[in-house]
Each structure stands twice: as C-alpha cells, then as structure tokens.
C-alpha cells in the first residue's frame, strides 16, 4: 500500500537563465540544501522586428529542472533571485509547481512509497507546455505573447538521454518536434489555450499536445 504521508511534499522548480548559467543554478540549489538537477538547452525569441529580419532574434537559454522539498523551495528561490538578479529584465525567471507523485528520489526511505503533493495553491500563474511540429514554436510564442503570456521559452526536443526519454504521453519527441514553455496569468490561460489549440489543431492526432500546471511561486517576473 502506498503511504503518501511517509515522505515530505515536493515541488518542481523550473529555472530559465542565460546560456552558461545552468551550473550556477545547480550550485545555488546545493547551497540551499537541494541536491541534483537537470539542465537542458532552450531559446527565447525576441519581438524586435529588426532582429527578426536579420535572423538574430533567437537567444540561447538554459532551462534547469530541480526537485526540492517544500521547506527548501523558498530558500532556494529567494537566493536564486538575489544572486542572479532575476528581477532585472532579461536575466531569466523561475517558477515552482506542486508535484502529485514522485518515485526514485533517495529522500524517500521506502522505495515502494511515493511522495505526495502539498495542499493548496497560492500562485497567480499557470505554466503551459506545448509540443508542436518543428518550425511552429516561434509562431506559438508569438501567438501566446499577443494573448498576454508573461514569459515563453522554447526547449530542444532532443538531448542527452534521448533513448530513455523519447516519449511524452506516447508522443515521440525527436528533431521534428519542439517544446514551448509558457508562463501565463491564470485569468488569461483559457484564452491562450484556445488560441493555440485552434491555430495548431492540437486536437488532431499527431499534431501535438498541450498540458497545463498551476504555479505555486514565481521569481523574476
């Protein structure tokens, strides 16, 4: 029988920073009592028309995924915001979302147990993950931004460990797919979702997939 009360609640922290700072984020996490993290490459697209014309609108980013206990989350995000000056435009942002279930962390003494999520959600934002055909990500970003999205970042569909993580919800993640992370205020989520669904025909098999998570904390917005 799974005992959700045997282990502490966890959060998934997603940190978007300029290229080369992923290791610094991991270091700050360790100083905050958090071990481990995964860094993947990403990019953002500038709205500047001149940069787009010159094909210089893409800016390389690193996206760090870190699992933390709830009692470490606030310390980590506060330290991150201060040391990386996330309040300064262009330096990046961080969000945390509640985790429903986690298996495989060394913090859980019994390997048959799972970690449960905390109760409640105090955030005013949602995070949206949109998987679309390669080449459509910039259009997703533009559409979401026009609809009021606060931040967007495009993740590479392939990277280290691709053979172990080649599918998300039974959809192959290969070079022909792109993943867009969108941060949006809750009252705008439905509109952004409907615009993307309609424009990119997400409902059609093989066209893509979109899922939404509530955000508990935001840093750098």
TrEMBL record:
Q: What Gene Ontology molecular function terms does this protein carry? A: enzyme regulator activity
Q: Which InterPro entries match?
A: N-reg_PII, N-reg_PII-like_a/b, N-reg_PII/ATP_PRibTrfase_C
Top-level taxonomy: Bacteria, Bacillati, Bacillota, Tissierellia, Tissierellales
Q: What is this protein called?
A: Nitrogen regulatory protein P-II
* Gene Ontology BP term (one): regulation of nitrogen utilization
Matching entries from Pfam families are given as: P-II (PF00543)
Instruction: Tell me which PROSITE patterns the record gives.
Output: PII_GLNB_DOM (PS51343)
């Amino acid at each position: 029988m799974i005992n959700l009360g045997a282990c502490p609640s966890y959060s998934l922290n997603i940190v978007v920073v300029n290229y080369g700072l992923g290791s610094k984020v991991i270091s700050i996490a360790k100083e905050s009592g958090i071990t481990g993290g995964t860094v993947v490459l990403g990019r953002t697209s500038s709205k500047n028309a001149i940069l787009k014309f010159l094909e210089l609108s893409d800016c390389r980013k690193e996206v760090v995924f870190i699992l933390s206990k709830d009692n470490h989350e606030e310390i980590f995000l506060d330290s991150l915001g201060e040391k990386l000056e996330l309040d300064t435009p262009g330096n990046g942002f961080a969000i945390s979302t509640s985790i429903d279930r986690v298996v495989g962390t060394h913090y859980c003494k019994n390997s048959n147990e799972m970690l449960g999520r905390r109760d409640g959600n105090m955030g005013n934002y949602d995070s949206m993950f949109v998987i679309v055909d390669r080449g459509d990500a910039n259009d997703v970003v533009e559409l979401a931004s026009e609809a009021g999205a606060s931040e967007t970042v495009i993740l590479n569909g392939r990277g280290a460990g691709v053979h172990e993580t080649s599918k998300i919800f039974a959809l192959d993640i290969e070079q022909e797919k792109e993943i867009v992370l969108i941060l949006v205020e809750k009252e705008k989520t439905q509109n952004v979702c409907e615009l993307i669904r309609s424009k990119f025909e997400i409902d059609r098999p093989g066209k893509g997939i979109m899922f939404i998570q509530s955000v508990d904390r935001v840093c750098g917005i």
